[in-house]
């Protein structure tokens, strides 16, 4: 998909996410906004998955390790035809709903259940290893949060991925610098991520993670890097798109009130309008 | 002649045989291929073996990832580490995501004897049984172990399988090993005491039944290798046909076979149920044989408990 079209779509999907959260009575809105462009670029331009190939052994695999950003995943999966947006809005978080507050693989397009942090990368190491052993060319992707990198299991998997030279594996860190208690640097320092991943034997690409163009280029570069797994450190803005919530830890999980909702939607519309006007 | 083949060896032999034609089988270890008796598998089929290093959480999640891509994953690690350190990985990546992973807990129970509580797994049945969509199996001898692994190769659901470290006396023979998946095996029928045992407690339970019969006490023995799903029908049949029920397990007193049997019997045909198990305390130092004798988990101890239970019913 053309990058300009993706940028326009991003503002529509942000509105969808906020509406899903409003309908469900709450959600991880801050992380949804920081991770959306990563998911959008992946699903539209890089993953070879469609609703009709969810069982194809050659499909690319994606696991949302920061599963709390599920509202962003639902919005993207709906836009790609896997899910029905109207149905999501009607039933998200409701009694008996399949649209749980974290990904579950009973829904089409979702490979693995997640929600507890530090699981996505190890599972993806297994998926990438299966491709290598079977001589298949599919690629494997996961997206983690930056606070998630405090989980030891992430580093067990980082070690194994380079040990087995899984160049078909690409991990993204949604580096929005905030977690539920505040700044990542105050909670547990993360600022040496480039060195840490490099020391574990990974190819490291650091980009502006709010930029669709930069993300698209990074995913393309990762595909062509041999013998090492790639991590994309996506430097993002938590709550991206509305000054009301940008860079505010209190918006990690939040239900906007009506006034906030109207303001956020207006901010998104203004950003889209600005894009349309060139 | 005493059997010298441990149940873990039977797992390797079964997997080796199957892997000759089934290229989807993959075995993972956490620096545990030797203690799991899987070195021969690793050497014979290196393309179907994955070494994860001493990283049990990664072991289980990677197995789940492989399984989600069509592999039949068998992840082997000491039961003490596999079932507690990797507990959440078993819960989410295996059970919740419903992946075709068999977790093989080696050196289970007090196999590691004098190495102490860090290396004992007296909580594994309780821990694994509490996870929805996780099955729990404790085979009693090498022949049943082989049959169980063959059955697990034919299905696609997650399971936990616990075996001990040392060879145990045979319960069955190569030609006479009746096995039906998720159905207990009736080893003896008795009208006084129903002894229900699992894993490597089955053989001493059978010996105890012989001692009891010599004393004029009619003792039945049920090999409940399938702790979850528990064979309720077999439990109830044995309980209904006897005056008291004695369960025997190499496990803590809570949340294991005894708890499950008592739950079923209490619901449907109340009988006095005694649970013979390890204590709710760090286990005394010694070889597993010494430990079993100390806690009355050998033939003489089981027979004594059964006779006392019957006398007080």
Task: Give structural notes.
The complex is a heterodimer of chains A (278) and B (313). Chain A has 278 residues and is an alpha/beta fold. Chain A has helices at residues 3-24, 29-46, 70-79, 85-91, 120-134, 152-163, 184-187, 193-199, 212-223, 258-276, and strands spanning 61-64, 140-145, 169-175, 178-179, 182-183, 203-208, 230-235. Chain A has one domain (3-276): Rossmann fold (3-Layer(aba) Sandwich), CATH 3.40.50.970. Chain A contains ten helices and seven strands. In chain A, the strands form two sheets. In chain A, strands 1-2-3-7-6 form a five-stranded parallel sheet, sandwiched between helices. In chain A, strands 4-5 form a two-stranded antiparallel sheet. In chain A, a hairpin with a 2-residue loop joins strand 4 (178-179) and strand 5 (182-183). The two termini of chain A are 18 Å apart. Chain B has two domains: 7-162, Rossmann fold (3-Layer(aba) Sandwich), CATH 3.40.50.970; 185-311, Rossmann fold, CATH 3.40.50.920. Chain B is built from twelve helices and twelve strands. In chain B, helix 1 (7-19) packs parallel to helix 7 (142-154) and helix 3 (56-68) packs parallel to helix 5 (87-96). Chain B starts with 6 loop residues before the first helix and ends with a helix. The chains are: A alpha/beta (278), B alpha/beta (313). At the A-B interface, helix 5 and helix 6 of A face helix 3 and helix 5 of B. Chain B: Residues 5-171 form the Transketolase-like pyrimidine-binding domain. Chain B: Pfam families: Transket_pyr, Transketolase_C. Chain B: This is Transketolase. Chain B: InterPro entries: PDH/Transketolase, THDP-binding, Transketo_C/PFOR_II, Transketolase-like_Pyr-bd, Transketolase_C.
